[in-house]
Amino acid sequence: MNTYVVVFDTNILFSGLGWRGSPFRCLELARERQVISVTCQEILAELEEKLRLKQNMSVTEAAQDVAQVLSFSRLVTINNTLKVVADDPDDDMVLECAVVGGANYIVSGDRHLLSLGCYQDIAIVSAANFLALVSHA
């Protein structure tokens, strides 16, 4: 059996918490411990900010959603030293989180990350592609 160690990009977490679709099903796999979710404080901070700005959540509501993600994720510490995605430096934290966390997948809806396809043997895939991979394992 393959062990999937995965970093969910902020956009996947955001969508997965708000709507039932591929990102939601990806998070369900982590909740059910079928995959190992790895995250970092920087991704969680970006998630909290987006929940407050785009969903008009209160600080308390956003913190509850962040706590929910933490409940099924392993938290790693990154140094913010990786500089790979020149067009969108925020994406570097996702790559660094995956490297530090020993992930073999990054699940993202971000075109900058998806266009890389792979980074240091870490596959970068969409939510739908990740679900297809896991279901065929």
Structural class, judged by helices and strands?
Answer: alpha/beta
Distance between the termini: 7 Å
* Biggest pleated-sheet summary: 6 strands, mixed
The portion of residues assigned to helices is 40-55%
| Count of structural domains | 1
DSSP strand content: 15-25%
Going across the major beta sheet, what is the strand order? 3-2-1-4-6-5
Any guess at the CATH architecture?
3-Layer(aba) Sandwich
Evaluate the radius of gyration.
14 Å
Number of strands: 6
CATH class: Alpha Beta
What name goes with the CATH superfamily? Answer: 5'-nuclease
Mean pLDDT across every amino acid position: 93
Q: Describe the global form.
A: globular
Structure description:
The structure is a single chain. This protein is an alpha/beta fold and 137 residues long. It has a single domain (5-135), classed as Rossmann fold, CATH 3.40.50. 52% of the residues lie in helices and 16% in strands. It has seven helices and six strands. It has helices spanning 10-18, 22-31, 41-54, 59-71, 91-100, 111-116, 127-135; strands at 5-8, 36-40, 73-76, 105-107, 118-119, 122-125. A six-stranded mixed beta sheet has the order 3-2-1-4-6-5, with helices on both faces. Helix 1 (10-18) packs across helix 2 (22-31), helix 1 crosses helix 3 and helix 3 (41-54) packs antiparallel against helix 4 (59-71). The model has no long low-confidence stretch (mean pLDDT 93).
Give a nutshell description of this structure.
With 137 residues, the protein is an alpha/beta fold.
